[in-house]
Amino acid sequence: MAELRLTLPLDNAKIPEISAVFEEAAPPSRGSAILLAHGAGFSMDSPFMASVAGGLCRRGFAVLRFNYPYRERAVREKRQRLPDKPEILEHAHSRALRALEERVGDRRILLAGKSLGGRMATHLAAKGESAAALVLLGYPLHPPGKPERIRCEHFPAIAQPALFLQGTRDKLCRLDLLQTALERYAGTATLELIEDADHGFHVRKSSGRSDTEVLVGLLDRIAEWETETFG
């Protein structure tokens, strides 16, 4: 697997560029490439992100992951920072999408993301960005303990097929509310429940599974769903 480190220029952030990593199996065995966006509390190089990217590459996908500007600053300054405003996040996300398009040519692109990254992927899709499908790992439907602040107003504008992977103990996504929200989703939405998993896809020992087994299951399901959706 080849790994290439990149810098992507920005126009409207407090830093001029962000970091990205492009990985690809040689030769690639799938017609899809994946843009993978991180969650609010960690960067593109977190163990979770690195494991997901590497696992997807081993399953034949080309994958590009990147830092949002606030996380780029946090990594460089070695301090925590709050997420940027949505317009800044979306700009960085779009810039990463352009970089992936430049590298994979006419291959279809799937917008994938963990939590915040998945939410921004849905924003881009709703605004008409070029993507074939969405893969959402722990969609943050509402803040913890605040199910009244639901984040799905843009679902009727998303036409692409989507795979929602949700833990049954996810405190950022009441499943009954998600199921209702998906009734308004314009495209085809597939909801896969990960029994006993929390927002980070951690499971309790009493579940009889390890976090590693859960992650392997997530990656296998993404690969299966891509095949089912596009042949």
What would your notes on this structure say?
With 231 residues, this protein is α/β, with parallel strands linked by helices. It has helices at residues 47-58, 69-77, 86-104, 116-126, 175-182, 211-230, and strands at 2-9, 17-24, 32-37, 62-66, 108-114, 133-137, 162-167, 189-194. It has a single domain (2-230), classed as Rossmann fold. It contains six helices and eight strands, in the order βββαβααβαββαβα. An eight-stranded mixed β-sheet has the order 1-2-4-3-5-6-7-8, with helices on both faces. The relative contact order is 0.14. The model has no long low-confidence stretch (mean pLDDT 96).
Along the chain, the helix and strand elements come as EEEHEHHEHEEHEH
CATH fold call: Rossmann fold
Q: What is the architecture at the second tier of CATH?
A: 3-Layer(aba) Sandwich
- By CATH reckoning, the class would read Alpha Beta
The number of distinct structural domains comes to 1
- Please provide the count of β strands: 8
Count the DSSP helices. Answer: 6
Helix content, binned percent: 25-40%
